[in-house]
Amino acid sequence: MMKLAPYPEYKDSGQPFLGDIPVHWNLFRNGRLFSQRNETGFGELPILEVSLKTGVRVRDMENLKRKQVMADREKYKRAAQGDIAYNMMRMWQGAVGVAPVDGLVSPAYVVVRPFPEVDCRYFSYLFRTASYMNEVDAYSRGIVKDRNRLYWQDFKRMPSPVPSIEEQRHITSFLDAVGSKAQRFIRNKRRLIGLLKEQKQNVINQAVTRGLDPKIKFKPSGVEWIGDIPEHWDATKLKRVVSFNPSKSETRANPADEEKVVFLPMENISVNGDIDCSEKRTLSEVWNGFNYFRRGDVVVAKITPCFENGKGAYLKGLESDFGFGTTELIVLRPSKAIDGAFLRFLTSTKQFLLLGEQYMTGAAGQQRIPSDFVKNYPIGLPPIDEQLEILEHIQEKSAEIDQAISRAQREIELMREYRTRLISDVVTGHVDVRGIEVPEIAEDELLALEEDTADADDEIDDEGDMDETD
């Protein structure tokens, strides 16, 4: 972490959200820095989108998470390379950025072109700071807060701190360089986390399929892909030690009762086997149309991609005696021959998930694992006391790995917090970076940086991508 000093002299900006700014900086309203671009009829240009993490980028039409019906492209607005585009309803969240190429944005977006003494990348950094986004919220208008919009007429009235064009460019280069270093750090930590997760999975796979004693004698399991198992283990199938999808009639509950029980939608079940029991529903709401389970059962996601990701859980910690959940679960009830936690680990091994993927049926995007695959899945089953020893071993080894994962995740959080604070301090003039020599960053490195930032949990703000007009 570098130590930065403030500017030698400051003046009052007159704006509470900015406070003091360097004495040689100006304070201009955005109307003196940008003009509105409202050009249509360029249907041949690529579609752009605004990401809350990475700004404006070209939309990948082939790999959209959800397909959208495109309105008449001739009505979409042109954003020239270097323009700033923002979503009127989401700029207060950071849905703003610089167009990387000539492209099209929804009619619900605002496009502004810079005047000559403006470096749009500096202002893109500024507009995405927490203090500026709060100011955007204050200038936005609407009937209800979550539908407020920042129209061009209001955007152009907003004040912005303005250093010279040379200083804007230097600030931008400095922040790009810092961002590049920060993202390399984050990328390496993510790789470490991936390796640690793989190590944890290997610990589980080895323990539940081969046991803990490497010197023990083995015997053929009779299943080629399982290979040998300890000779005192039973070669069996899940259906012989597990019952499937038990009946809710065993509860003897009144379906019209207003008693509340835990409800588990898929998003409340993690790939790590954790469950979020915060959602409760009355029996009358869930008695029909949902899957029933009770405390101590094991649930396995059956739909893609949840199955392949290993979503499932041992419901030892269910907060009600029984509950209901999404129909995209297979419910397994362990017999006395198999511990519930051991069963959960068996159904999260690489072998189980990879083989199950081959048996999935249904249309693309809606494929499911057949119950018969799970029922007939062959396993090597140790005695119950050995299962408990294996579980203790997995818990001990997993705890060490989980601590290392948590440390790496915390280091990522701290790096992100540092970078966010540094951006805010630099673009508002709280610290002076003029004397810092900045290495040049190749354009392809910046593009790789943005792609790496847009990870799986990236939130794309595409509200208003349909044909909304004002």
CATH uppermost class of the largest domain = Alpha Beta
Distance between the termini: 46 Å
CATH topology of the largest domain, anyone?
Adenine-n6-DNA-methyltransferase TaqI, Chain A, domain 2
Q: Tally the helices.
A: 10
- What would you say the CATH architecture of the largest domain is? Alpha-Beta Complex
Mean pLDDT: 89
The gyration radius over C-alpha positions equals: 28 Å
Quickly give the structural class: alpha+beta
Q: What proportion of the residues is helical, as a percent range?
A: 25-40%
What does this structure look like?
- This protein is α+β, with helices and mostly antiparallel strands and 470 residues long.
- The protein has 2 domains: 212 residues, Alpha-Beta Complex (Adenine-n6-DNA-methyltransferase TaqI, Chain A, domain 2), CATH 3.90.220; 169 residues, DNA methylase specificity domains (Adenine-n6-DNA-methyltransferase TaqI, Chain A, domain 2, Alpha-Beta Complex).
- Helices cover 32% and strands 20% of the residues.
- It is built from 10 helices and 25 strands.
- It has a 4-stranded antiparallel beta sheet, covered by helices on one side. A 4-stranded antiparallel beta sheet has the order 16-23-20-21, with helices on one face.
- Strand 1 and strand 2 form a beta hairpin.
- Helix 4 runs antiparallel to helix 9 and helix 4 crosses helix 10.
- The C terminus is likely disordered.
- One of its GO terms (biological process) is DNA restriction-modification system.
- Belongs to the type-I restriction system S methylase family.
- Keywords: DNA-binding, Hydrolase, Restriction system.
